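Running co-folding for glutathione.
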Amino acid sequence: MKLYHARFAPNPERVLMFLKEKGKADQLEMEELNIIENEHKTDAFREVSPLSQLPALKLDDGRCLTESRAICRYLEGLYPDPNLMGADDEEAAFIEMWDRRVEMMWLLPMAWWARHGHPAFTAIESQIPDLSARGEKGFLKTAKWLDGELAGRDWIAGERFTIADITAFATLGFARVMKWKPGEDLPNLRAWRDRVMERPCAA
Ligand SMILES: N[C@@H](CCC(=O)N[C@@H](CS)C(=O)NCC(=O)O)C(=O)O
């Protein structure tokens, strides 16, 4: 099994954090590609990931998973402890709801903000400044909403740490590209971030 990943990229980061939280990051062969240098746009990598996206997990039988959440699902089955995606169908449904909200309402606008606004991304993106501005607005709106949600509980999806916290923390990591971190006006988000930073996934 081989994981293709990249640094400073939220989706590969999600999978790496997921593995670290399970204490299994040393169990897989890894290859790092540099997205800004377009190392993921080669014919050889297209054999692994036809859309030229990272992360990608190549299984021992040659098949490849190229969606970060699908990779996490696979790894959850392989390494069930600690459980990060739900102990039963009901809990899994709530965790999935929160993970998807974080992905669509926080990670996606963050990606627009950075990819369409930061000079480093001109290498891989035809930038549309309006999309960057819209992404920033959406990202900040969700940050405020999450801060309110976290006033009543420690973790994004409920009473325990899950994949939804990993997706959110990877988003926060990406926000540093735009020099953003939660300020004093977002005390619950800051407290949550500090809690995640104590965990194996943030090591
Ligand atoms: N749906 C995919 C999205 C993956 C994705 O967008 N990966 C980015 C890095 S975070 C990428 O490979 N970008 C390369 C490019 O846009 O050229 C997943 O979640 O795995």
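Result summary
The first strand starts at residue 2 and ends at 5.
The mean pLDDT is 97.
Job closed.
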